[in-house]
Specification:
Helices cover 0% and strands 51% of the residues. By secondary structure, it is mostly beta strands. The chain folds into 2 domains: 3-37, no CATH class; 50-128, OB fold (Dihydrolipoamide Acetyltransferase, E2P) (Beta Barrel), CATH 2.40.50.100. The strands form 3 sheets. The chain has a 4-stranded antiparallel β-sheet, with no helix packed on it. A 4-stranded antiparallel β-sheet has the order 5-12-10-7, with no helix packed on it. A 4-stranded antiparallel β-sheet has the order 9-8-6-11, with no helix packed on it. The model is unreliable at 43-57 (pLDDT under 50).
Length: 131
């Protein structure tokens, strides 16, 4: 395996790379093996339809990935703004904010905290505000 110099908190370390794939890096330092999980950071403009919630025009917000609902931040009757966090889903030990794709009124909430959800599962129904 290859040896690399890694800077962490302004300090240099020599580590041996044991494994690298799209989701993680495994390395050793001073006889201890570490695994780092990787998850790309996407801006709203980088998301594709399969990665983001459905468009507000159809009134449905679906899960972009499978996971566990950590928190539900809105209830039926609430007014929401575009990009407001509706809930938090944990996937692969990372918390992901699910955002409102537009402004509107929450008509229905189809999830609760601690519930497992599948990719593309309906989470919320929102009545969009007129443009």
């Amino acid at each position: 395996m290859k040896t690399y110099k890694v800077k962490l908190n302004s300090k240099d370390y020599e580590v041996e790379l044991l494994k690298k794939d799209l989701n993680s890096i495994v390395y050793s330092h001073a006889g201890i093996v570490y695994e780092v999980s990787l998850q790309p950071i996407l801006s709203l403009s980088d998301r594709t339809d399969s990665q983001s919630s459905n468009k507000i025009s159809d009134g449905q917000v679906c899960a972009p990935m499978p996971g566990i609902v950590v928190d539900v931040l809105v209830k039926p009757g609430d007014q929401v703004a575009a990009d407001q966090t509706l809930c938090v889903i944990e996937a692969m030990k990372m918390e992901n904010n699910i955002l409102a794709p537009g402004s509107g009124k929450v008509l229905a909430v189809h999830i609760k905290a601690t519930q497992e959800v599948d990719s593309k599962q309906l989470l919320f129904e929102i009545d969009p505000l007129p443009s």
